[in-house]
Design goal:
With 188 residues, the chain is of the alpha+beta class. The chain has two domains: 35 residues; 137 residues, Nucleoside Triphosphate Pyrophosphohydrolase, CATH 3.90.79.10. It contains three helices and eleven strands; from the N terminus they run βββββββαββββαα. The strands form two sheets. Strands 4, 5, 6, 7, 8, 10 and 11 form a seven-stranded mixed sheet that branches. Strand 2 and strand 3 form a beta hairpin. The chain is globular, with a radius of gyration of 19 Å.
Length: 188
């Protein structure tokens, strides 16, 4: 490889980009592309600021939130998670902020378990996965989107059963739990 050469071979080249839509939370762009096989196409991409998802665990119980999710038109159970309308310098600060907003909790310890891409077939957004322990109540600070949010403290075995039975279908929650289980298995 030559100096300055991209170490990752690309099978798609961006020919042009145009912004289609923007608001405080996201940007949507449409890219004209050229595939390595010579075929042209378009790619629609949604860009959002980094997010955090938190596993608040205490005494073999885990905190979940339930809220109405407009895109699927139903209430959903999931781990607390979210992003802010700005770039973040500290994923831990974001995670702590979401934990306070949604559950009114502070954590004595925050452990970064990993960083995942959320739905990278159409969305450019990273999600930082944190384990929160040593929890103490502080008072909720919900934003307008969380006006109907309900908190639930459930046993870990019930949480797993809810995922297996399809009562929890949020892919970010399921993926975060998988990372946690791998991390936990290596702590022995």
């Amino acid at each position: 490889m030559k100096p300055g050469e991209d170490p990752t071979p690309r099978s798609i080249t961006t020919l042009s980009t145009r912004e289609v839509y923007r608001n405080h939370w996201m940007r949507v762009r449409e890219d004209q592309i050229l595939r390595s096989n010579g075929q042209r196409g378009i790619y629609g991409v949604v860009e959002k600021h980094d997010a955090a998802i938190i596993l608040p665990i205490e005494n073999e119980r885990i905190w979940l939130v339930e809220q109405f999710r407009y895109t699927i038109a139903e209430r959903a159970l999931e781990l607390p998670q979210g992003s802010w309308e700005m770039e973040i310098d500290s994923p831990e600060e974001l995670a702590r902020g979401e934990l306070r907003e949604e559950l009114g909790l502070d954590a004595a310890h925050m452990t970064l378990l990993g960083t995942l891409w959320i739905a990278y077939g159409l969305l450019r957004q990273k999600q930082h996965v944190f384990l929160a322990t040593g929890l103490t109540p502080t008072g909720k600070e919900p934003d307008a989107e969380e006006h109907d949010l309900a908190a639930h403290l459930v046993a870990v075995d019930e949480f797993e059963r809810m995922m297996l039975e399809g009562r929890i279908r949020d892919n970010c929650t399921v993926a975060a739990w998988g990372l946690y289980l791998m991390w936990k298995a290596r702590q022995k």
